[in-house]
Design a protein that fits this description.
Number of helices: 3
Number of strands: 5
Amino acid sequence: MPRYIDTRTERLPTAVHARIRASWLRVVAWYSGETALDLHELCDVNPSAIHLTVPSGFRTRKAVPEIYRLHRFDLELAEIGWREGIPTVTPERAILGGIERAPGACWR
């Protein structure tokens, strides 16, 4: 149990708080796509890979393990957030991402 509670960022808007938290933790990838839909409990999808969105200019020196699918996209501040301490895109962004990646899939 923590000895104190940090309330310094408690009054900030959620998106701003997420950005501050991300910079503090140096988060450069946000769970997105099917992974975010699953985290937000928006559908019963069982992702075959872990989908992550990174900034479009993000470069990695190492090979990305096959379990991950990197999507390069510059997220707006309002599209990022946290789900139970996990950096993820908002439910709205996850749904839009699913529609953009698989148009018409929702209607099959």
